[in-house]
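In this supplementary section we document a worked example of the pipeline. Step one takes a protein sequence of length 257 as its only input; no multiple sequence alignment statistics are reported here. Step two produces a three-dimensional model, which step three serialises into structure tokens for compact storage. The input and output of this example are shown verbatim.
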Amino acid sequence: MLFLIGAAGFLHALTPGQLADPLAGITELSRAFYGTGGAIAATAAMLAATVACMQSSVIAGSRLTLAMGRDGVLGPGWARLHPAHRTPVTSTLRTTGLAVALSVAGLAVGELSEVVLAVVNSVGILVSLMYGIGGWACVITFRHELRGGRLRDILTVGVLPALGGTALLCLGALVAYQQWTSVDHMALDPENGRFLTALPLGTVLIGVPAAVWTRYRRKAAYFTQPVPPLPPAPVSASGSASASASASASPSAGVSV
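The serialised model returned by step three reads:
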């Protein structure tokens, strides 16, 4: 809701030229409402949000690789913890090193602002693929629970993940198609639609042989471990009270106990 309100407000208050440069547009909007101090506060807030985003990416990435190292998908070094703080120190350092290396390599494409814009425009395809495949992975993993299961389970692990996954996969395909057909040639340019499409898809293709090698060569237990069953339906307080009352009223209750 906050994103929708903010987006509607920006579209209403900013001109098309200001929308083309979001940083300048938000600064001008803050200056118009709150003066110079407001513009400074808006810039400081965006810088703080950028730092928070970087921290969340590094922290989440290090814990993701920690879990992958624990389950054998990555090497055991990724699961090494700090002896005192018990934090994934190896995963954090490696993730940070990879991020720095990719950032430096991205400078070959263009200026930092252009690289950031290219990443924002292309990461949507990866996000759609990740959550789309995740939705269908939920359906496939718990497919045995769907046969004669409860309606709630059928909806939460079957219908809704399938609908959401399909919608996101279609959205990712639509974005990829629009970006690819927006130009007629490939160029190492952050504004080239084909480059912005090939970048995330190439990343996915690089991960396929790594996953196959981990599954069949390293034989990680993650791929063969049994799927835990869904938890049983919770019993309401009223239901448990009525069950206790009926048990105490039954003539054979004492014998059963």
